[in-house]
Amino acid sequence: MGLVFCLYSNRINNELAISSLTTRNLLSMNEAHERLGHANKDAAREMVNGLNLNVFPGNMRVCWACTVAKMKQKNVVQLSMHERITVPGERVLVNVS
Q: Please, what is the average pLDDT of the chain?
Protein backbone atom coordinates (compact mmCIF):
# COMPACT_ATOMS: atom_id res chain seq x y z
CA MET A 1 0.00 0.00 0.00
CA GLY A 2 1.45 3.36 -1.01
CA LEU A 3 1.46 6.40 1.19
CA VAL A 4 1.77 10.10 0.41
CA PHE A 5 3.14 12.40 3.08
CA CYS A 6 3.60 16.14 3.17
CA LEU A 7 6.24 17.40 5.57
CA TYR A 8 6.45 21.00 6.75
CA SER A 9 9.23 21.94 9.10
CA ASN A 10 9.87 25.23 10.79
CA ARG A 11 13.51 25.49 11.81
CA ILE A 12 13.02 28.34 14.26
CA ASN A 13 10.82 26.50 16.75
CA ASN A 14 11.64 22.93 15.67
CA GLU A 15 7.94 22.31 14.93
CA LEU A 16 6.85 19.58 12.56
CA ALA A 17 3.42 19.32 10.94
CA ILE A 18 2.77 16.16 8.95
CA SER A 19 -0.40 15.45 7.00
CA SER A 20 -1.16 12.14 5.40
CA LEU A 21 -3.25 11.13 2.42
CA THR A 22 -3.97 7.69 3.80
CA THR A 23 -7.65 7.34 4.52
CA ARG A 24 -10.13 4.50 4.60
CA ASN A 25 -13.10 6.67 3.65
CA LEU A 26 -14.24 6.94 0.06
CA LEU A 27 -13.03 10.06 -1.72
CA SER A 28 -14.59 11.76 -4.70
CA MET A 29 -12.35 12.23 -7.70
CA ASN A 30 -12.33 15.99 -7.00
CA GLU A 31 -11.13 15.44 -3.42
CA ALA A 32 -8.38 13.16 -4.70
CA HIS A 33 -7.47 15.80 -7.31
CA GLU A 34 -7.13 18.46 -4.59
CA ARG A 35 -5.17 16.24 -2.18
CA LEU A 36 -2.80 15.10 -4.93
CA GLY A 37 -1.71 18.65 -5.75
CA HIS A 38 -4.29 19.56 -8.42
CA ALA A 39 -2.92 17.07 -10.95
CA ASN A 40 -4.71 16.71 -14.27
CA LYS A 41 -7.39 14.05 -14.68
CA ASP A 42 -5.18 11.32 -16.14
CA ALA A 43 -2.34 11.86 -13.66
CA ALA A 44 -4.78 11.94 -10.74
CA ARG A 45 -6.34 8.63 -11.85
CA GLU A 46 -2.89 7.03 -12.20
CA MET A 47 -1.88 8.19 -8.71
CA VAL A 48 -5.18 6.99 -7.24
CA ASN A 49 -4.65 3.57 -8.80
CA GLY A 50 -0.98 3.46 -7.79
CA LEU A 51 -1.76 4.39 -4.19
CA ASN A 52 -4.75 2.00 -3.97
CA LEU A 53 -7.05 4.77 -2.74
CA ASN A 54 -10.79 4.25 -2.45
CA VAL A 55 -12.44 6.68 -4.87
CA PHE A 56 -16.07 7.03 -5.98
CA PRO A 57 -16.45 6.10 -9.62
CA GLY A 58 -17.29 9.12 -11.75
CA ASN A 59 -15.88 12.11 -13.55
CA MET A 60 -14.09 15.13 -12.16
CA ARG A 61 -15.91 18.44 -12.01
CA VAL A 62 -14.28 21.75 -12.88
CA CYS A 63 -11.85 22.78 -10.13
CA TRP A 64 -12.21 26.44 -9.14
CA ALA A 65 -8.57 26.76 -8.00
CA CYS A 66 -7.26 25.33 -11.27
CA THR A 67 -9.54 27.65 -13.26
CA VAL A 68 -8.27 30.71 -11.38
CA ALA A 69 -4.66 29.58 -11.82
CA LYS A 70 -5.12 29.35 -15.60
CA MET A 71 -6.63 32.85 -15.95
CA LYS A 72 -4.72 35.41 -17.95
CA GLN A 73 -4.68 39.15 -17.50
CA LYS A 74 -6.35 41.18 -20.19
CA ASN A 75 -3.91 43.03 -22.47
CA VAL A 76 -3.24 46.65 -21.56
CA VAL A 77 -3.59 49.19 -24.36
CA GLN A 78 -0.19 50.69 -25.12
CA LEU A 79 -1.47 53.74 -27.01
CA SER A 80 -3.18 56.60 -25.19
CA MET A 81 -6.10 58.50 -26.73
CA HIS A 82 -5.18 61.68 -24.78
CA GLU A 83 -3.22 64.57 -26.21
CA ARG A 84 0.21 65.08 -24.72
CA ILE A 85 0.58 68.11 -22.51
CA THR A 86 2.85 70.93 -23.61
CA VAL A 87 3.10 72.89 -20.36
CA PRO A 88 4.33 71.21 -17.14
CA GLY A 89 1.50 70.98 -14.59
CA GLU A 90 -1.20 71.42 -17.25
CA ARG A 91 -2.80 68.12 -16.24
CA VAL A 92 -2.40 66.45 -12.85
CA LEU A 93 -3.42 62.84 -12.32
CA VAL A 94 -4.02 61.57 -8.79
CA ASN A 95 -4.53 57.97 -7.75
CA VAL A 96 -6.74 57.95 -4.65
CA SER A 97 -6.75 54.46 -3.21
A: 76
